[in-house]
Amino acid sequence: MEQVLTRQQGELVALERRLVLRVRDALAQTDGSRADLERLASLVHEMDELFLLVVVGEYNSGKSTFINALLGDEVFAMGDLPTTRAISILRYGESGPPETIGPNLLLYHYPLEVLRDLDIVDTPGTNSIERMEEEITREFVPRADLVLFVTSLLQPLTASELDFLTHIREWGKKVVFVVNGIDRRNSDEQLDRVREYLSREVAARLGDSTPTFYFVSALQALSGKLTAGSVVFDARNEYPELERYILETLRETERVRLKLLTPLGVLRRVLKGNIEGLDKRLTVVHEDARVLRSIRDQLAAYSKETRADSERYLIEMRNVLYELERRGRSWFERTIRIGNAFFLRNKDAVENRFRAEVVQDAPDAIEAVVHRMVDWTVQRNFKLWRSVFTELDAHTARLRASGALAAHGDTEFQYNREELFSKLREPVERRLDEFDTEREAREIVTSVKEAVMTAFGVNVLAIGLGGIFIAVFTTAALDFTGVLTATIFAIAGWMIIPAKRRQLIKDFEKKISKLNDDLAALLSSKFEEQLARYESDLLEVVAPYERFLETERTKLESGITALRGADDEVTTLEKRVAETFPAARSQRVDRTENRQTIP
Fold first, then answer.
1. pLDDT score at 279
2. CA–CA separation, 240 and 349 (whole Å)
3. pLDDT 10s digits, 430-469
4. Distance between CA atoms of 344 and 504, rounded to whole angstroms?
5. Lower Cβ count inside 10 Å, N or C end of the chain?
């Protein structure tokens, strides 16, 4: 039997160890909390340790007295005030002073046979004025293979005890309840009432429908053993059964079963917390990605609407030139006539009248269109950045309100996410703070003027944007002096003048058409160039965070899949342990006598 048990136990321990290592690696790859990684690293070594029977409870509940009764000797200090200040491990060996084996960790030895198979651990009392003592006990709970929870008959399961029990059960620990101090009961009915109350509370609050209770008087048991005589118990004292459970049951397969369940309980707790944490992180990633998609959608809508709306400024510019063309045709019809021959011979006079009556304020009107278009473009861009900033601010507020921005332990994700999100948000905020619409508009207008200068070879920076129009329009008058000479009168001038007028109008219309097309193409090109720069500015801010989110999403989804698979494997191993090492049957016996003795 021992060989079979050892072989089966060895197989299960090997499976559990491999699973622990896999979970640890999965947590490391998903930036799991350092505390959980350290817990799993310790768990690998703890699987080779002796069975740990951990005694917990509030101070002055009788934990140390109970252990002393089990040993039949006053090994641990007892008293009304908190006496245990550190974790005390009791192990088989010759008696002697305790040795310090770690922070807040003492090792005692005692030659009790049962200690060859298990260690008994005494813990500092909970609900002590020294909160550090309870924290020490809380941190040791994950190592326990079985928890004996000692509570007082006079104050059973206080609020602080229920809170501590919840912590114990989160780690999937088997809990046996020891109700101490029945020698101070008022009546047997009091025991029945307390048992009923405890059964109800444990079932309701901890989900354990069949909790195990032992009602004892540890002080009575210790006193009897110290007198070296038989210990006399009344019919309601269940200390002998509890002692039998510890000394006999835990030396058989029950000890192996509980020992095998311990790492699975720890894994269950770690997996539950980390799967929830990864799910929350994935929610943050999805929400961040949604916001970035929204920003991209805003950018696409902004670009589409801006391109569509910009057409009205090109139409305004074309209308100015169309009106100028109309005035030009009319002017040529009125002016290029035989009756104006002497006037037409004065080139300067013709040019001045052409400026005054045809060109008029067209250059200024087109410059005004350009300025309005630039101002409108800059304002739209400012509005886009402000909308993006509002979206990021609202997103952060939503995540914080939902708790999704709460710290996920000390994970790399939280650090990386906050760092990158700051890099996303800060340039948007800085762009808004530094947004000088007048300066930006001036820069764009200067850029347009330089483009005009390049296209038409006119020093626009020196003479203004109107210079290009004056230069183009006045050349439309052509060289009248070469046409209107005395020859006109000699050779049927009345035929030449109309033909020349038609040619002038045709050339003028061609120049206006080309100017219209050239200016529209130039303004559209500069507009697209500026729009592309605005798009690039925003995408440069968004793109790094998008890459981070895609990497993080892949990592988290892979991690969640791995951890959920491990959780399923924990369930499978728990079933296998239960089938291989069934739970021990109750060792209780019905008492018909009101006197029971144990040596």
1. 92
2. 131
3. 777 777 777 777 777 777 767 766 666 655 555 566 666 6
4. 13
5. N
